[in-house]
């Protein structure tokens, strides 16, 4: 059940169940299913079956499974399901650094570790906050729809920056980036909202990327090519810069 406490010693209760479908996707799935039924009524089976499979694909794309979110203060969790495609030292985006007139402080200008997570159309596309805290900024930037795996997608594509600050002043900036197929970023939060770690913040339709800008002095715990799970995989620990090595096989 959502909200239940589970731990690493086997306490709590977990059961298997079908994931929920996010309301944002139900209308698309129901529309595709309705068109399939119309085709079936007119005995147009060559069109009915593809539309039926399309409706199943839409429902699967918008699935919204529960996640068991780590609650310790040092963990930064992944904001997205997908594959780690880039880990680099870069300056944070200008929109997360400059004063925006709201009186809230932005990130520093010095380079930090950026972790880029690519989501294919087969991944869950609900994004979650890496830390608990208050939403300080939500900045939408219109742009292009280049392949989200490209480095320049961080600066050229349609994107939305989100800045979250903990009560102790620790800040995390992350960016939802539309991709080659994605055509809309749907936010669930606004400035002033208070979030728990791993809480849902938005989604991107259909195949995209999320960049996470770690706090200064914090390095990646994940490796290139590794798959991560939103709200569950710990991608970094505050103040630690571990070196991890892996072999692709």
From TrEMBL:
Sequence positions bearing Pyruvic acid (Ser): 208
GO CC list: plasma membrane
Co-factor requirement: pyruvate
PTM info: Is synthesized initially as an inactive proenzyme. Formation of the active enzyme involves a self-maturation process in which the active site pyruvoyl group is generated from an internal serine residue via an autocatalytic post-translational modification. Two non-identical subunits are generated from the proenzyme in this reaction, and the pyruvate is formed at the N-terminus of the alpha chain, which is derived from the carboxyl end of the proenzyme.
Catalyses which reaction(s): a 1,2-diacyl-sn-glycero-3-phospho-L-serine + H(+) = a 1,2-diacyl-sn-glycero-3-phosphoethanolamine + CO2
Keywords: Cell membrane, Decarboxylase, Lipid biosynthesis, Lipid metabolism, Lyase, Membrane, Phospholipid biosynthesis, Phospholipid metabolism, Pyruvate, Transmembrane, Transmembrane helix, Zymogen
Cofactor: binding details: Binds 1 pyruvoyl group covalently per subunit.
Pfam families xref list: PS_Dcarbxylase
Residue spans crossing the bilayer: 28-61
InterPro entries, per the entry: PS_Dcarbxylase, PSD-A
Pathway of action: Phospholipid metabolism; phosphatidylethanolamine biosynthesis; phosphatidylethanolamine from CDP-diacylglycerol: step 2/2
Keyword presence, Signal: no
Site (Cleavage (non-hydrolytic)): 207-208
GO aspect biological process, one term: phosphatidylethanolamine biosynthetic process
Subcellular location(s) per record: Cell membrane
Top-level lineage group: Bacteria
Membrane topology designation: Peripheral membrane protein
Molecular functions (GO terms): phosphatidylserine decarboxylase activity
Record keyword ATP-binding present: no
EC number per UniProt: 4.1.1.65
Catalytic residues of the enzyme: 208
Family designation: Belongs to the phosphatidylserine decarboxylase family. PSD-A subfamily.
Functional note: Catalyzes the formation of phosphatidylethanolamine (PtdEtn) from phosphatidylserine (PtdSer).
Assembly and interaction partners: Heterodimer of a large membrane-associated beta subunit and a small pyruvoyl-containing alpha subunit.
Stated name of the protein: Phosphatidylserine decarboxylase proenzyme
Organism, scientific name: Qipengyuania gaetbuli
């Amino acid at each position: 059940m959502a909200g239940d406490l589970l731990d690493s010693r086997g306490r709590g209760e977990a059961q298997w169940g079908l994931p929920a479908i996010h309301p944002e996707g139900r209308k698309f799935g129901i529309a595709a299913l309705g068109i399939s039924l119309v085709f079936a009524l007119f005995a147009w089976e060559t069109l009915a079956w593809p539309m039926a499979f399309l409706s199943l694909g839409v429902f699967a794309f918008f699935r919204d499974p529960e996640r068991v979110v780590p609650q310790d203060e040092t963990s930064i969790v992944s904001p997205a399901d997908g594959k780690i495609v880039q880990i680099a030292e870069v300056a944070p985006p200008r929109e997360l650094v400059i004063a925006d007139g709201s009186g809230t402080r932005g990130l520093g200008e010095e380079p930090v570790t950026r972790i880029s997570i690519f989501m294919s159309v087969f991944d869950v596309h609900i994004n979650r906050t890496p830390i608990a805290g208050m939403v300080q900024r939500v900045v939408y930037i219109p742009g292009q729809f280049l392949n989200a795996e490209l480095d320049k997608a961080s600066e050229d594509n349609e994107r939305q920056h989100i800045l979250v600050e903990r009560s102790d002043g620790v800040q995390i900036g992350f960016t939802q980036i539309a991709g080659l197929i994605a055509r809309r970023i749907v936010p669930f939060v606004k400035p002033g909202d208070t979030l728990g770690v791993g809480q849902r913040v938005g989604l991107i339709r259909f195949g995209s990327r999320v960049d996470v800008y770690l706090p200064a002095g914090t390095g990646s715990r994940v490796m290139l090519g590794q798959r991560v799970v939103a709200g569950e995989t710990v991608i970094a620990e505050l103040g630690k810069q571990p070196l991890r090595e892996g072999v692709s096989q």
